[in-house]
Amino acid sequence: MMAAISASGEGKRVILLERNEKLGKKLFITGKGRCNITNACDAEEFLSHVATNSRFLYSSFSRFNNDDMIRLLNDAGLKTKVERGQRVFPQSDHSSDVIGTLKRICDRNGVQIHYHTKVEKILLHHDAGNAFFAGVQLSDGKTIKGDSLILAAGGCSYTSTGSDGDGYRLARSVGHSIKPPYPSLVPFIMKENWCRELMGLTLKNVSIRVKQQKKVIYEGFGEFLFTHFGVSGPLVLTASTCLGKYQKALEDGRLTLILDLKPSLTAEQLEKRYLREFDIYRNKNISNVIERMLPRKMVPVFLREAGVPEDKKVRDITKKERRRMIEIMKGLEMHIAGVRGFEEAIVTRGGVSVKEVSPTTMESKLVKNIFFAGEILDVDAVTGGFNLQIAWSTGYTAGFFA
Ligand SMILES: Cc1cc2nc3c(=O)[nH]c(=O)nc-3n(C[C@H](O)[C@H](O)[C@H](O)COP(=O)(O)OP(=O)(O)OC[C@H]3O[C@@H](n4cnc5c(N)ncnc54)[C@H](O)[C@@H]3O)c2cc1C
């Protein structure tokens, strides 16, 4: 839609081909139905939130950045607001208003929209050893000729929205290399069965570290959630974007996750707290003391991991047991068995190799007049409106030059 808006804004005749019965099916479910349109941070910060190939975005982001996107929507009558973490949402809290606004601009600019129209094949012609875009063949066999093509078919997560990896097939068919797609912004499956016992428990203000042996791959602070298969929540989703280089270690089950349940206290401060509590509650069960420090649901799991019986009297706790409890509270170790699938991944890592695409124009370096935009490219970011801004910036640029 953004590519169509920018190309038509430049006076070009644009046909938008969408396989679904309507536009923006994925956009509709973004931001839990509220659509986190972009992030109001500055350029440097924006790029620091891009997990893969951030440098590729310099040029397109400076051509059309987050301010430009907000202005475009505001000028078209959509009011926006900025929330925690500089996340930008429509004031109405309805993603459908974002889709409606983009559609209205498309209509105003005379973009022809064809629904239920799946692109099956890209047609090329060759001249003096160069390949050029010629047209597309649709699933009903019809062909549409054109001067240029912008391929913005998305990644392969949440396939029911229409992006099922078909764009990769099309890109590959004209010679592009595809970096293997993996789920990203995705929950972790853990080896520890006790995660299931804690299903539904959210921990706020905790910190995690993801490690390959001693090497720390990710470190962060925030909200953490236990699920029936492992762990999720904003911290875990963000951590999942850092696994690109560690795919093999992930598959081999060599990554660990260390959960610090008391990040604001040092081990020494925590020890003082234990000693204080132990003094007051000498004759109580240890579980009563731990309950004062952790959510009740976590206590049995915590004590089991520490090897301390729940009904052991505080006065009988040995120094070794106390130390072990402190150690676990500061670093509960879990083992990552894998990540959940594309159906639960907010974005796809991988896609059309950016080495074969011009970062200035988004044009293919292999076939003249074919352009790429959005998640189909091997670019992805953390949550906060960054992935959509990638689509807006690259879409605008592709439309401008196509
Ligand atoms: C649950 C969820 C929540 C999200 N929330 C946010 C958020 O709040 N903020 C944010 O920044 N990002 C969010 N994202 C990520 C963001 O939605 C995507 O990165 C973004 O939509 C990518 O845009 P795109 O245009 O490249 O691809 P898509 O939005 O996937 O659009 C691709 C379109 O191409 C069509 N298509 C595919 N193949 C063909 C074909 N062969 N012929 C014709 N049409 C075809 C599809 O039907 C689809 O409509 C979220 C993602 C999910 C899954």
Summary keywords:
402 residues; alpha+beta; Helicase, Ruva Protein, domain 3; 2 domains; four-stranded mixed sheet
Task: Summarize the entry for a quick read.
The chain has 402 residues and is α+β, with helices and mostly antiparallel strands. 32% of the residues lie in helices and 26% in strands.
Describe the structure.
The protein is built from 15 helices and 21 strands. It is an alpha+beta fold and 402 residues long. The protein folds into two domains: 2-182 and 349-401, FAD/NAD(P)-binding domain (3-Layer(bba) Sandwich), CATH 3.50.50; 187-340, Helicase, Ruva Protein, domain 3, CATH 1.10.8. It has a six-stranded antiparallel β-barrel with strand order 12-15-14-13-16-17. Strands 7, 8, 9 and 19 form a four-stranded mixed sheet that branches. The chain has a three-stranded antiparallel sheet with strand order 2-5-4. Strand 14 (215-226) and strand 15 form a beta hairpin. It binds flavin-adenine dinucleotide. The site of flavin-adenine dinucleotide has 34 residues, from helix 2, helix 7 and helix 15.
